[in-house]
């Protein structure tokens, strides 16, 4: 080894990850590495294993073999709640916000301190919590909607609110499954802006089919096919890769 040469520091190192469902390998000996402050996008045809990869990272699905290193821990050995505590936040495709609460209350109950033994809603509204709620609301473009009942938000605003509910927990890795599905063009542009702002303090792993959006956000793209990497690199590299055109982009 060269003197003074440091191995690169990855926030997330997925190594040899495999999961079999009744003998079918949905993810097959997969390895990829995400750096600090990186926006990584996973693309690929239907059934490629994209959602399963996020399920494995957040502990919803248990790996058959392989490792997922995150901040010195192997996530494959941890329970879902421990993985959240370790700093991994995951947003699913459908927003799961509390429709009958206001935007403020949705953010407030997601503040980590809210999950105390006294119950999520009973804790005191400290100045710190209010400040943090306002800061997050501003980032997700909902500062002027804090008092609004969440059921009155547009679909895109509900998606942002859910991202906000994860951001308030300050995860080091935020995983988003098709965050701009169903959003208007202007909402997509603002979501790209939001992701570029929030990676100052974290990395983001996104599954997405909207290639314009991928182009706007991705530092690096991983193309999955049949549970394995078909191609990886910059958007330019992967979109000009004949293998990617053949199995995905050409359709
Ligand atoms: N719990 C499970 N049991 C059995 N098979 C599963 C399970 N979860 C996923 N699969 C299968 O694994 C494969 C990969 O599914 P996955 O949802 O990860 O694909 P995807 O790339 O996210 O697809 P899409 O773009 O359609 O969401 C599919 O063939 C799916 O049917």
UniProtKB/TrEMBL annotation:
Keywords per UniProt: ATP-binding, Nucleotide-binding, Transport
Molecular function GO labels: ATP binding; ATP hydrolysis activity
Protein's name in the database: Branched-chain amino acid transport system ATP-binding protein
Keyword set includes Ribosomal protein: no
Stored CDD domains: ABC_Mj1267_LivG_branched
Gene3D superfamilies named in the record: P-loop containing nucleotide triphosphate hydrolases
Transmembrane segments: none
Gene Ontology cellular-component terms listed: plasma membrane
Domain ABC transporter: 12-251
Keyword Cytoplasm applies: no
InterPro entries from the UniProt entry: ABC_AA/LPS_Transport, ABC_transporter-like_ATP-bd, ABC_transptr_urea_ATP-bd_UrtD, BCA_ABC_TP_C, P-loop_NTPase
């Amino acid at each position: 080894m060269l003197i003074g040469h440091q191995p690169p520091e990855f926030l997330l190192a997925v190594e040899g990850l495999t999961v079999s469902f009744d003998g079918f390998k949905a993810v097959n000996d997969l390895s990829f590495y995400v750096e600090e402050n990186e926006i990584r996008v996973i693309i690929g045809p239907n059934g490629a294993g994209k959602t399963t990869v996020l399920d494995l990272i957040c502990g919803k699905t248990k790996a058959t073999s392989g490792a997922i290193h995150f901040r010195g821990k192997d996530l494959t050995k941890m329970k879902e709640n421990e993985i959240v505590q370790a700093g991994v936040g995951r947003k699913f495709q459908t927003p799961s916000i509390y429709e009958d609460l206001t935007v403020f209350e949705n953010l407030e109950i997601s503040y980590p301190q809210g999950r105390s033994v006294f119950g999520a809603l009973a804790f005191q509204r400290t100045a710190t919590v209010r400040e943090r709620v306002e800061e997050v609301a501003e980032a997700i473009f909902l500062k002027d909607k804090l008092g609004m009942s969440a059921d009155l938000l547009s679909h895109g605003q509900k998606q942002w609110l859910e991202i906000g509910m994860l951001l308030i927990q300050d995860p080091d890795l935020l995983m988003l499954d098709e965050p701009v599905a169903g959003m208007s063009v202007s909402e997509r542009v603002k979501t790209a802006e939001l992701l570029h702002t929030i990676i100052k303090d974290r990395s983001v792993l996104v599954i997405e089919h909207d290639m314009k959006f991928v182009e706007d956000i991705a530092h690096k793209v991983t193309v999955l096919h049949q549970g394995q990497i078909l191609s990886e690199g910059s958007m330019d590299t992967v979109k000009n890769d004949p293998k990617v055109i053949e199995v995905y982009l050409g359709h």
